[in-house]
Amino acid sequence: MKKIGFVGIGVMGESMASHLLKAGYEVFVYTRTKSKAEALLANGAHWEEEPSQLAAKVDVLISMVGYPKDVEELYLGDNGFLNHLKAGSIAIDMTTSSPSLAREIAEKGKENGIGVLDAPVSGGDIGAKNGTLAIMVGGEETIFQEVKPIFDILGSSIILQGAAGSGQHTKMVNQIAIASNMIGVTEAIIYAETVGLDPARVLTSISGGAAGSWSLTNLIPRVLVEDFSPGFFIKHFIKDMGIAISEAKQMGLELPGLILAEKMYQTLADRGLSEEGTQALIKFYR
Predict the structure, then answer these.
(1) Does the keyword Ribonucleoprotein apply (predicted)?
(2) Which of 46, 187, 243, 270 is the most buried (most CB within 10 A)?
(3) What is the C-alpha end-to-end distance of the chain, expressed in Å?
(4) pLDDT tens figures, 71-101
């Protein structure tokens, strides 16, 4: 079986790497804060002190970090992955990042004989824990098929969307849909509370109808018990919306709903709530 490297052990990365270990893969891990990887190391993962050392030892490298600048540094920096991965290996960036950066990494990888896929995900901490992530992939078909068994361990909806960068564009579509939906489901609960209804009963009634959505089913129940822990950080959602807004501007496309959502979440970040989950949008109203 292929040796897999996993860089970025965060809210989702720990569960994803754990699934690969349970499936029998030899997994090498690196994250900036080693303590985040302790559970994985206890279950047989190998720790590497530097990302470059990890890259030299694996057949498939998976990265899931915070921001496009982190991706650029890891792949294209002087000590980047593309200078250390073996020819014939495959790099999969599952960070939500810039489509143009994904294309640049793929092009440079091809020059070095390294296959590259951009494969951002949706489903948050719940999808990562359950192995039911939606994985949106950009890259070449032959590379995709080679690592499809790995994707199958991590997700339940795995679709090759097109050439390099297509996975990132698809994730932008996903985030645009979520942004306005989060406003809608949050305002719905605020209305229910204000009029004196029992929000939990209301949620039961509307979740199975036309108003139903993933956010309504999975995030609003957290709101009702004042659980604002991050399945997905506000700071990362703001980053994603910023990428989508930038891409839309380049296309001459106006997305007023997305711009409104970004402003609302930025207000929460300015209040010191950037480390909370996206369901904390209700605090904008309260």
Answers:
(1) no
(2) 243
(3) 52
(4) 999 999 989 999 999 999 999 999 999 999 9
DSSP 8-class letter at 45: P
Question: Tens digit of pLDDT for each residue in 195-217?
Answer: 999 999 999 999 999 999 999 99
Furthest C-alpha separation in the chain: 63
Assess contact for 59 and 4: CB atoms under 8 A. yes
- Both tokens of 155, joined, read 């997700």
Lookup: tokens for 78: 């002087």
Residue with token string 């698809």: 170
Using DSSP's 3-state secondary structure scheme, residue 225 falls into coil
The reply to whether 283 belongs to the active site is: no
Q: 170-284 adopts what CATH topology?
A: N-(1-d-carboxylethyl)-l-norvaline Dehydrogenase; domain 2 (1.10.1040)
Task: Enumerate residues 6+ apart whose C-beta is below 8 A from 226.
Answer: none
Phi/psi of residue 21, each to 5°? Answer: -60, -45
- DSSP-assigned letters across all residues of 160-207: EEESTTHHHHHHHHHHHHHHHHHHHHHHHHHHHHHHT--HHHHHHHHH
Alpha-carbon distance of 207 to 122, in angstroms, equals 20
Protein fold of 4-163:
Rossmann fold (3.40.50)
Q: Which two tokens stand for residue 195?
A: 């009029």
Which residue is catalytic, options 36, 171, 235, 249? Answer: 171
Q: List, in sequence order, the alpha helices (H) in the chain.
A: 13-22, 38-42, 51-57, 68-76, 99-111, 124-130, 141-154, 166-195, 199-207, 214-218, 220-224, 234-250, 256-270, 282-285
